[in-house]
Design a protein that fits this description.
Strand content: 25-35%
Distance between the termini: 34 Å
Strand order of the largest sheet: 6-7-8-3-9-10
Structural class: alpha/beta
Oligomer: single chain
Number of strands: 14
Length: about 300
């Protein structure tokens, strides 16, 4: 769906984006995560064709954006951080206006607007003036204009900015519904946002891509967490002799259990290691209460990648 190669952007002497490359498949929800000023909005503006890169190439749907801008832009929807809403217009009139600007055929405009209104649960507000809407409803109008014409790619810049918890939950559910029909890139500086709805994260720091990983893989370290009832040095010695285990760290006991963090060698197979650890526990005639891959939170990864 999207191929980005060596993308860079300068503003005078300032390097906002530096040599960023990534690939996004059809149907993915990808979180573009980073502190304010990390380069997220600049990348999204370049992906939308609003801003030209200083260097690098962008291919969307197999088309070079620099050469086929109009064709590519007709297949994407863009929600900027502050949607350009006209407060005096009715919701329906505004969406019809945007549909016209997007070049949707005249005979298809009403159908397209109706579909966008239904998809964003705006039916009760279609004849309301935009200025009378809550912040959450205005964000929905912004999303509605982005999905007019059923784009194959949606670019959403801080879609939950300024929303209360209930509105945020509603927006997340809306994004997940839209992902059934479109690839979605979601820019945010809120880690919980990425954790809640994204399949993958692209993490930026000072304009550079410092991480590109599926969230499932990202959360798992190459370590096992073992809970048993044997705290003896003899048992720890057995664990250290396992070929997959690089080190054994005894963690503080909790509720009478003995906890161990087993760091594995880089080339060790997780399933084989787990099988051997289980056998070790049984041969020591100990009880096995828990054995699972050690999971790390996205917040810890974010702070690690953004620390000096």
């Amino acid at each position: 769906m999207i191929d980005v190669h060596s993308l860079s952007r300068r503003y005078g002497c300032d390097q906002a984006v530096q040599n960023v490359s990534f690939h996004i498949d059809d149907g993915e929800i990808v979180g573009l995560l980073g502190h304010n000023g990390a380069g997220k909005t600049t990348i999204m503006r370049m992906l939308s064709g609003y801003l030209e890169p200083s260097a690098g190439t962008i291919y969307i749907g197999g088309f070079n954006l620099a050469v086929n801008a109009h064709s590519v832009q007709s297949t994407l929807g863009y929600l900027p951080e502050n949607p350009p809403l006209y407060p005096d217009m009715l919701v329906a009139d505004y969406l019809q206006y945007i549909a016209t600007i997007k070049g949707i055929a005249k005979q298809e405009i009403m159908t397209s607007v109706r579909q966008a209104v239904i998809a964003t649960d705006l039916s009760d507000k279609a004849l309301s003036k935009i200025q009378t809407l809550s912040r959450g409803m205005k964000q929905r109008v912004g999303v509605a204009q982005a999905i007019l014409g059923k784009p194959k790619l949606l670019i959403l810049d801080e879609p939950t900015s300024g929303l209360d918890p209930q509105q945020t939950d509603q927006m997340r559910k809306l994004i997940q519904r839209m992902s059934r029909q479109a690839t979605i890139i979601l820019s945010t500086h809120i880690m919980q946002e990425v954790d809640a709805i994204c399949d993958r994260v692209l993490m930026l720091r000072a304009g550079k891509l410092v991480l590109d990983s599926p969230l499932v893989e990202l959360r798992q370290t190459h370590s096992l967490l073992l809970r048993t009832d044997d705290a003896s040095e003899r048992f720890q010695g057995y664990l250290k002799q396992l070929p997959q285990v690089a080190s054994v760290q005894q963690l503080p006991d909790s509720e009478g259990y003995s906890n161990y963090l087993l760091a594995l060698h880089d080339n060790a197979d997780m399933d084989t290691a787990a099988s051997n650890v289980t056998r070790c526990v049984l041969e020591a005639q100990a009880n096995l209460y828990q054995l699972q891959p050690m999971v790390q939170g996205l917040e810890a990864i974010f702070h690690d990648k953004n620390s000096d």
